[in-house]
Q: What sequence folds into this?
């Protein structure tokens, strides 16, 4: 049988069709095989590049996720530490107030009015504690700044005064309502972290009147992210009070107010979970327990 002629630049592909032995021959140029092999090599290279690229991206994503988790954990630990230090700071302030209270109860002057009659040992102890508190407070402000926080505004911090006589002390409730939080260590309803609550919260319906608890001058009537709309009153002889989370004001900065005068209305502005007034009392530049200054009308009626 005569062999079929095959051109030098081609190769013959024989295909058997079915079971009867029929065959079919195809003449394919040799360059086609080269193109096919080249395409396969390119596809293989692309596949390997995609696999390595995906592996690199996946590894970077895992690394980024790990760093984000680590950063979040460290930040939470730092914020928790700051909260604990802040609570400790306020607890020490409260301890100072309690120590002063115990000392003054033994004298002829009633708390919270400072008579200046303390023992030398007590004076040295308190002076040392105050100095340490100042250093801790400076460090907290520095750390807070490094974390991108905002330092506590002087608008909501007491000035350094020392009450020497009883006239001018806050002596009534700032509003009608239920006391839902006291001057104490608590878990914050906003951040769920431990903090020292530096006032008392009285809750009632929005729009409930808020009263000046002593005569004085309105030194601040503005909005702040934490306290919301708040009013700060400077009373005579070193007493100051603050009223936070108000819905609106009835007075302006610079106004002179009398004890029992309506200065605004209860609301839920700022960091608040419902209508209430956050009430603080500052005596001699120290935040004091407002519960010690409620229902004292009979003691001060002659001075207002």
A:
């Amino acid at each position: 049988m005569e062999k079929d002629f095959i051109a030098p630049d081609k190769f013959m592909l024989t295909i058997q069709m079915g079971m009867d032995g029929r065959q079919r021959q195809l003449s394919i140029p040799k360059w086609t095989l080269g193109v096919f092999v080249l395409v396969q090599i390119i596809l293989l290279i692309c596949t390997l590049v995609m696999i390595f690229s995906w592996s690199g991206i996946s590894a970077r994503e895992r690394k980024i996720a790990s760093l984000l988790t680590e950063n979040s954990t460290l930040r939470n630990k730092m914020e928790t530490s700051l909260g604990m230090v802040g609570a400790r700071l306020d607890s020490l302030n409260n301890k100072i107030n309690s120590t002063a209270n115990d000392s003054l109860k033994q004298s002829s002057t009633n708390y919270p009015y400072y008579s200046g009659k303390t023992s030398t040992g007590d004076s040295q102890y308190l002076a040392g504690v105050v100095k340490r508190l100042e250093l801790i407070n400076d460090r907290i402000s520095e750390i807070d700044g490094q974390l991108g926080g905002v330092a506590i505004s002087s608008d909501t911090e007491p000035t350094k005064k020392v009450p020497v006589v009883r006239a001018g002390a806050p002596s009534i409730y700032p509003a009608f309502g239920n006391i839902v939080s006291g001057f104490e260590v608590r878990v914050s309803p906003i951040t769920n972290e431990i903090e020292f609550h530096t006032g008392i919260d009285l809750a009632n319906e929005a729009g409930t009147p808020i009263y000046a608890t002593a005569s004085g001058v309105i030194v601040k009537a503005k909005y702040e992210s934490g306290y919301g709309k708040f009013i700060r009153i400077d009373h005579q002889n070193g007493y100051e009070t603050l009223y936070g989370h108000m819905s609106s004001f009835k007075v302006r900065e610079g106004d002179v107010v009398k004890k029992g005068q309506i200065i605004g209305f209860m609301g839920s502005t700022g960091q608040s979970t419902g209508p209430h007034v956050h009430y603080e009392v500052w005596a001699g530049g120290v935040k004091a327990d407002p519960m010690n200054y409620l229902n004292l009308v009979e003691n001060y009626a002659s001075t207002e």
Q: What stands out?
A: Confidence is low (pLDDT under 50) at residues 103-120, 148-153, 298-304. Residues 9 and 253 are 101 Å apart (CA to CA). The longest helix spans residues 30-105.
